[in-house]
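Intended use. Records like the one below are meant for learning the mapping from a protein sequence to its folded structure. Do not use them to infer anything beyond what is encoded.
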Amino acid sequence: MKQGLAQQQREVQLQRLSPQQYLLSKLVELPLTDLEQRVRDELYENVALEEGVPAEQDTASDASDELDLSDDETFQEDDANLDLTAYDTDDLPVYASQGQGSESQAEIPIGDTRSFIEDLEAQISDYDVTPRQRSLLRYLIGSLDDRGFVDRPLRSIADDLLFNHNVEVTEAELEDALHILQQFDPSGIGARSLQECLLIQIDKLLSERSSSIHVEQLELCRRIIADEFALFERNDTARLAERLGVSAERLRSAIQAIGRLNPHPGRSLHEAADDRAQTIVPDFLIDTDHESQVSFTLNQGEVPPLRVSREYLEQLKSYQQGGESHMTRSQRDAFIYTRQKVEAAQMFVSAIQQRRHTLTITMKAIIAFQHNFMLTQDDAQLRPLRLGDVAERTGLNISTISRVVNSKYALLDGTLYPLKHFFLRTKANAEGQEILKTRIMPLLRELIDGEDKHNPLSDEQLSLLMREHGEPISRRTVAKYRDAMNIPVAALRRR
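Structure written out for the chain above:
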C-alpha cells in the first residue's frame, strides 16, 4: 500500500459577515447605556470621528464623492460587502445623529449601584490570580446565566474565545479558573448544575464549620446529593433511607437542611441589585392617546451626533490628488493611516444609523402586532407573537430581531416593560387548542403557593392538577415553566 500526499479541490459555499455587518450586529444588541459607552470609546480611539452634525451638507457630499464613497442609504442585511456611506442626516429619525431633542430623552432616577457582574468582578482582587486567569474569570462571569450557573460546556467556551477573541485556551485552564470562581460569594456561583451548586455550598459549610448544621448531618447531606441525587430529586425517601442506611427521622432532618441551601445563587445578587435601585434605561418611549393612537420615539440618551472629521477628509483628499506614485514613504504611511481612520469613522457612523433604522422598524412591527395591549396594558390582550413574525414583517433576519429584543426595555405610558414581554409564545395540545403562557404560569404559581409546604406537589402531581383546571400539559412542560419562574423542585420546597 503506497502512502503519499494528494491535493483535492472542492467547491464549498460559506456565509461570512462583512466587517460592517459584524459591527452592526454588535451595536444592535447593545442597550442604550452600553451604546453610550461604546460611542465614547470610539470617539476616544478614532481621531477621524468627532461629535457634531455635519455642516454644509452639500459640500460634504461633494467631498465624499471625490473620495469614491457611495451615497446609497439603502442597507440590505445580506450584502456581503457593504459600501462605506456618507449619510444625509436630514431624513433620519431623531436618535444619534440629530440634535439633543428633549422629547427623545428619558430621565430616570439612577441609583449609585453595582451590577450583578460588577459584584463578582470586584471579588477577583481577593484572590492571587495571574493576568490570564483574571481575563478568563471575567469571561466566565460574563457567561453566567440568571441562576448564576455556567450552563455551557467548557469546550464550547474555549471555542468561543478562540473564534471571537483569538484567545487560545485549554479546558484545563478554564477548569482552574472556574474552580476559583466557585469560591466567590454567594456560595454556589459558577456551578454547572443544581447538583454541583448544592455540593459547593455543602463543602463550603464543611470547610468553615461555622454553620448551625452539625458536621455529621452535613456529611449526610453531601452523600445524598453526591451519591443519590436522582432519588433525592424524585423525593423517594424510602429508598434513600434504605440506600444510605439511616433512619427516616435523620433523613428528614438532612433533607430539610438541604432545603435551606440556595438553588439559584445568581438570584441573590440580582435581588441585592434590585434593592439598591438598579438602573434600567428604556430604549423606546411609547405614548398612547384616547383616539387609539400609539406613537414612539427612540431614547437617544447621551449619544451625541457623530460625523467624520472634516480635517481628516481634507487630508485624505489632498493625498489622493497628489497621487500615490509621487508619495514619499512617510507620506504613504500617513496616507494609509488617514484612510484607515476615515473608513473606520464612516463605517461606525453608518452602523449607528443602521442600528437606529433597525430598532425603528422593529418597534413599528411590534406595535402593529400588539396594538391592543399598548392601549390597555392588559396581558389578556397580548397576541401570540414570535421573533419570526416580526422578522417576516420587517424583512430583517430573525437573529437581528433577537438582538434587538434582548436586554432592551420600552417605557409605555410610564410603565417599564422588557421587549420580551411583547412576545407571547404558544403551544398547541393534541386537540389543537392554544395554551398561552400568560395562563399557564399564573395558574402554576397559584397551585404551588397553595400547596402543603410539608408535603409539596411533585411535577407529576402539578401536571394532573393543571389538567383538572383545563390546561393539559405534561410533567416535562411543568418542569420547564417551574424552572422559568425560578421555583425549585418539590424536595427543595419542603419545610
